Amino acid sequence: MDETVWSKLPAEMFVKTMQFLPPVRVLQQRTLSKWVYQATSSVSFNHLYWKQRKRVNETWLLLVQIDMKGSFKDLSSYDFCLEKWYRLPRDNLSNLNGRIDVVASAGSHLLCKGEFGNLPDKLYMCNPLRGTWRELPPMQKQRREPRVGVVHVQEDPADVDGDAFKVVVAGGFCPWGHIKFDLSSEVYDSRTDSWKMTESIPEDFVPCLKFFQYKGSLYSVTYGIIDDAICARDVILYNLESGIWSKVQAAMPEGLMQVNVVECNERLLMVGIVRASSIKIWMLDDSAKNWEEIATMPPDTFNEFAKSISSNFSCTSTYSIGKGRYICLILNHSPLVLKFDMDLNTWTWLPKHLHENGRGLMYWTGMFFNPRLELDHKQS
């Protein structure tokens, strides 16, 4: 950008032009001069920019690269409309102490969990676009390795500076070397900035790994030994409104070795590896009593995918109401991403991710988020 040209534009014309740039591009332009920074950081610009982005209502894929020490090495996002990767700032995030894991997304923010040896875990919310973060208040019970999930509660159309969410923490080991597993659960509400104890997680629900949000509830999959093999056993859920844990009554398909529950096109879907020979997708029917198979990965694609698997894979999907159509399969130890388009029933690889940093063993995690440049929580 030529500052001498843009600085001569009428302020109104400049603001209108900048409204149509992707959030990452606006961040880049802010670094060019003090004048551009001030013009694109004002309250009036934020309101106009938010209205424009709301009309677009796009959801991006965020890919996070972390080394085995838990340090951020790269943050990149993929714009499905432009089919392009953007690199995000990571300097402020990489300064967090301890081992950091990205747990989930909530609107425009990420929920991160910090592990500090035998000390209690800490939770953080960060804005990946702006590279800002803050620590949540301590949980009422000190825990290590709890199950953590987050639900994006609302976006107030009249308040571009507010972004409400609830965090659910279930179970965990007592700190300072104790091996006893605590089944208690608690919920954090960003609107009150406080924790509240809730119903304990049932003991047979504990073998779950990751929560996914769907229509205001959190879903996960439990595993058990079936015919001498570790297989998916049940889909469980936590209802935030009632504060109750329960099971989805639909019977699980047989032979599922690895499963993820996601939301796509306002429906609850399940993606799983079946007997290490195929990947299938099921949809929970309207009665919530049956899983209906809706897609199978083509054999050639599965063979290519299987060659890249060196560990578990994770699966995430868009959750924007009425906008979600993609499911992405993330390879934990590879930056490769496989996309399923539910509307077109196609499986395609995203363009190669070029921002791989560092040496040694790395792992990747991915999730969808809404890029909101103007939204932020207070930085600690």
Task: Write a concise keyword list for the protein shown above.
Neuraminidase; four-stranded antiparallel beta sheet; 7 helices
Account of the protein in words:
The protein has about 375 residues and is mainly β. The chain folds into 2 domains: about 1-55, no CATH class; about 55-370, Neuraminidase (6 Propeller). It contains 7 helices and 24 strands. The chain has helices spanning about 5, 10-20, 25-30, 35-40, 45-55, 90-95, 300-305, and strands spanning about 60-65, 70-80, 85, 100-105, 110-115, 120-125, 130-135, 145-155, 165-170, 185-190, 195-200, 210-215, 215-225, 230-240, 245, 255-265, 265-275, 280-285, 290-295, 315, 325-330, 335-340, 345-350, 360-370. The strands form 6 sheets. It has a 4-stranded antiparallel sheet with strand order 3-2-1-24, with no helix packed on it. β12 (about 210-215) and β13 (about 215-225) form a beta hairpin.
